[in-house]
Amino acid sequence: MVLGPISMSKERAEVMSFSEPLFMDQQIIAYSRPTLQPDLLGFVRPFTPFMWLMIAVAATFVFGTTSIMLSILEHWTRKRPTQQNGGKDGEEKKSENSPNIFQKTVLWTYGLMVAQRKSHFGM
User: Fold this and answer.
1) DSSP 8-state secondary structure symbol assigned to residue 5
2) Is 73 part of a structural domain of the chain?
3) Which candidate among 10, 21, 84, 117 keeps its CA 20 to 30 Å from the CA of 70?
4) In this structure, is residue 105 part of a structural domain?
5) Domain-located, residue 75
6) How open is the CA angle 117-119-121, to the nearest 5 degrees?
7) H-type helices in the chain, by residue range?
8) 101 assigned to some structural domain
9) Rounded to an integer, what distance in angstroms lies between the CA atom of residue 26 and that of residue 28?
């Protein structure tokens, strides 16, 4: 095997087999360097429309399940006696600035979609 500028002659062709010759010329191909173009919908491109539909279905399922679970939890804890009100039954123990079920559900669903813990939302 020989690599280098060896010309093909009749004598060399009888002794060795040559590959297809490459033709070298002094031509230069030039083109402009590609630049990054802003793409506003770049986050949508990695997934197909079917995948986005499945993500929406999953988010809706998580939203519905979370709202049902939080409704049940709030119903069970609402009528519970607390130490603050002297142990009287039936009094609300909801604070002034606690979010309602819809707000909690939105925050939980968003937190699950971006894989954040619930403590980041101040709950």
Assistant:
1) -
2) yes
3) 84
4) yes
5) yes
6) 95
7) 10-15, 49-78, 101-113
8) yes
9) 6
Q: How many CB atoms lie within 10 A of CB 59?
A: 14
Domain that holds residue 113: 49-80+97-121
Quick one: tokens of 18? 């040559």
What pTM value is reported for the model?
0.46
- The tokens describing 60, both together, are 């809706």
19-76: per-residue pLDDT in tens?
A: 766 665 666 566 667 788 887 788 788 889 999 999 999 989 988 888 888 888 888 8
Other CB atoms within 10 Å distance of the CB of residue 66: 19
Helices (H), 4-48: 10-15
The span from the CA of 8 to the CA of 16, in Å, is 10
Q: At 87, which amino acid appears?
A: G
